[in-house]
Specification:
2 copies of one chain form a homodimer. By secondary structure, chain A is an alpha/beta fold. Chain A has 5 helices and 5 strands. Chain A is globular, with a radius of gyration of 14 Å.
Chain lengths: ~140, ~140
């Protein structure tokens, strides 16, 4: 199931670029085995510099659940979180809950990005390389 | 002027508690010597766990300016930023711009909280102690 959630995040990231709404970053929040909310980067289309994928997904999940904390939820995000998003994730998810990241840029990154962050699951999706090196969030 | 901006942030933090809207945290964004936007913690009243003072101030400043970046702006915040807010500040303010923090909890914290963070100004406001030790954000 984890791969399916991650795949959903990646597909939403790609769609976010196609739609012109924002950058190639999306995230989904999962509770009890199903996606309850999703978010994508909409910094430029909303003039909200905090509207990164993880932040918008967290906001949407809380709106739907009617709560301001996400214990028992998981987050799957399409790329390495920036410091703000990493802080948001650690603020609002319980330490034992799964937080999974992938990178759509280079397959190799999918594992290496998670290194050293306790509690993060290494991603093993077979993500096709875009052929590009590096990238910015 | 810096002290006046910080005092404004602290007063807004106190008012935020009195109003019941949220915790004792507020921030103001300054551009060209005047406050252009303010924000206060409204996590519990809006069910938005990312609605910390610094994040709401940044969002409001960008809404008012019609842009998603805050080069040339300064932020004054009433307490030590959490990791999310610290990330948001470093994401959205240019490295040379002033970022000033204070703590309304203990006078001694006003200086010590800023230690080791390059570019942060030590706060020298004469902040009355609340008489309480510690606190959570």
């Amino acid at each position: 199931m984890a791969n399916a959630f991650m795949q959903e995040a990646i597909e939403r990231a790609v769609e976010n670029v196609r739609s012109g709404r924002g950058g190639p970053f999306a995230a989904v929040v999962v509770k009890e085995g199903r996606i309850i909310a999703a978010g994508a980067n909409c910094v430029t289309s909303t003039n909200d510099p905090t509207a990164h994928a993880e932040v918008t997904a967290i906001r949407e999940a809380c709106r739907i659940l009617g709560t301001f904390e996400l214990t028992g939820c998981e987050i799957y995000t399409s790329c390495e979180p920036c410091p703000m998003c990493l802080g948001a994730i650690y603020n609002h998810f319980a330490s034992g809950d799964r937080k999974t990241i992938a990178s759509g840029i280079e397959r190799a990154n999918a594992c290496t990005l998670a290194r050293g962050l306790h509690g993060w699951k290494k991603n093993k999706l077979d993500i096709p390389s875009s052929g590009k090196k590096g990238g910015t969030k």
